[in-house]
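Lecture 7 notes. Example A: sequence first, then its structure tokens.
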Amino acid sequence: MPLLTIATFLPILAGLALMALPNRSARVAHTVSIAATAITFLLTLAIWARGIAPGGFAQVEEISWIPAIGAAYRLGVDGLSLPLVLLTGLLFLCSAIYSARIGERATTYVVLMLMLETASLGTFMALDGLLFYVFFEVSLVGMYFMIAGWGHEDRQRAALMFFLYTLLGSLPLLLAIIGFYLGSGTFDMRAWIGAPPLSGLAAMLALIAMLFTFAVKTPVFPVHTWLPAAHVQAPTAGSVILAGAMLKFGTYGLVRFAWQMTPEAFAQAGQVVLAFGVVSAIYGAFAALAQTDLKKMIAYTSVNHMGYVVIGVAVAALAAEPRIRTIALDGATLQMVSHGLVTGALFFLVGMLQDRAHSRGIDEFGGLLGRVPWLGWAFILSAFASLGLPGLAHFPAEFQIFLATLTAMPWGVVALIGIVVTAGLYLRAIAAVFLGEANAKWAGMEDLDLREKLVIAPLLGLTVLIGVAPGWLLGMIHATMTGLVN
């Protein structure tokens, strides 16, 4: 059974079936959305149960597509892509459940979300360069319309900014893909990884093109300015999908394309990439500290946390010892997953707070923990995870990244400043919003209902599980990373 293909295209097929139904009420649309994302998530679990091949791709599905140019429909998974596939399946299911409250143009909203899930899963599983680019680009369309159609007051400007930044940013990747094809005669990414087709100046130019694309997508300072506006204006589920899945396109591509397909050029440019990662981590933390809008604060912490991933990948390119390179890649991949869980939870919680108060201002609340304890304690747990508290998901990821950095490139640990600042900004937010004197204005605020608890519980549960016992996930990641560095 081609599980990868079924999991990838089931969401968009469900969306098309929904459009064909004569009764397309909001209730029917959301029922289809939840059912499709739930089945897709179960399929990703089945893919996980089948397992991976250490050091290579598993469960490969391949059909000739454009034989004249060597392009084919190719899907496969390994220890880098499979954790992100599982994360994507979970986040879209939680987003579908949360979005059941949306009544305005519900059918269109659901179809866009399901299209985004297909594009996201396809991006992580594609093993053909041309197919990867198609999935990569299709995701822009879905997110653009989601922000523009269901976002907040300045949504049109934010959606246009997101689309232009990421569309123009992706064009250099297309040039790099064409370069790989001209050097190899195929679009098979496995061939590009096994025997990098470019060398010398050509490889360096391809690397520069890919670094620009993936820096915009991650995003990395200074090409990050589209992110805060997109997050603040996007509907809650859009912010979760953008942070939890789509930002990972950048860091996934950094490993899969830049690190694996131009290894020598990446090693030469590693110090520069590391510097951008360090600056992003520190800048993101200080920029978040300056915010008074909870959602914008969390958006800037994404720049901070994704900067740590970039640091880990750069160190893996620079380190001489295979063990250190493996530790760095293990940490970077685990950080991608933990960021999706933790930041996804935070965006959901801020969305739930905004649904009740119609405000996100940090200074407009106070003493909410006594009124909405479920929401308050869930936010506190997520905030502690985001600041890297031991026992929660970010800690084992960031520990490995900085352990490798300290061993191979000691100057890179200056990025630890970002962790200190992040701790300060979250403690400030917790104190201002949930502690202190209660504001009588919010006396009637209701706590989380059953639907909201169902959305947030799996994310928080996995945040704790990965923090306490990360071995079940790291084992899968490590099996692949060990093969990549040797």
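Example B, a different protein, same format:
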Amino acid sequence: MDHLLPARPAWRPPDADADAHVDVCVVVPVYDEQAALERSIRRLHAFLSDGFPFTWRIVVADNASTDATPLVARRLAAQLPGVVHLRLERKGRGLALREAWSAGDARVLSYMDVDLSTDLRALLPLVAPLLSGHSDVAIGSRLAHGAHVVRGPKRELISRSYNTILHAALRVRFTDAQCGFKAVTREAAARLLPQIRDDGWFFDTELLVLAGRDGLRIHEVPVDWVDDPDSRVDIVHTAVEDLKGVARLAFAAPIVRFAAVGVLSTIAYALLFLALRGPLGAGGANALALALTAVANTAANRRLTFGVQGRTGVLRQHAAGAIVFAITLGLTAGALDVLHAVAPGASRIAEVAVLVVAGLAATVTRYVALKTWVFAAARRAPVAAVAPAPVAARARAEARG
């Protein structure tokens, strides 16, 4: 079947100049869906053509199908206005979404599963808050109040268990990570796509977790959903990969990185304090050791915890970090004074122990200050545009000439 495929990916907007005027891009990722593809795309096309109040485009994102799916997709693109075909040579649902979303210029980028298990009437409530500026990400939820779901007990148990794990491990607030019915604004995609590492089924979860960590507004739409009995998803393999992804995101959480930086800073501080205690005394050693480690701590958290790179604003951020350092200095100096008042002959080990405890008490204040004040503006800085993904960029270049 490969010899029947086009020499280059088929993705190119029907009218590139009009691409910026499209409100909603609906991506349908497919893999070996020759049987269901035409029926589903024609149904979706008819729904959008029959009074959908925004301009739209349908992208069939074929990620390395080995059956007649690309032939069907090309035929649909030729017959139905507003339908285009993107051919990828590597599998991965997340990869298909990354490529299609990166290439399009619609105001809202969405996707739905090819089986159309979600009632299409939920599409307007999904995209409207994004087009109005109310939200940044919108998801269909089968677990939200008001949803109506028809599926077997096995899938119901797996879905609820997975979302329970997400809430426990990642402290997320959304109710349904895996429903194949989502949308993001162009600006949100610009922020999130460069951060997402997964190109498979975990792409959805990672998108939502990162959106929450970036402070983006997530809107949930209760959906009517009917399970597809012909689904060929390998549930066990997908579950294992999802759990690996959850573990990766848990260890990559800002609070975990902040804690790791804090542990190293505390060790460095304790060693510096002991080295300086003799010539400078307890107070001087505390102040200098804190000052040295505070600079390193701010720099490390800037890059590792809050993902701020480049030199823009670095002086202001370190100046703000110095104010936070002053708070920590006040707490630790006060703790030393109390210790020496209670036990004038306290050992250096006792001094270090009290200072570490006082430093830990100041850690919560430091984290909140760094997140909401020192690095808040840098983390909210908008990204101008999503860099076109390799496949889509090559397809556009080839299509032009």
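Note on Example B: The chain has 13 helices and nine strands. The CA atoms of residues 202 and 241 lie 7 Å apart.
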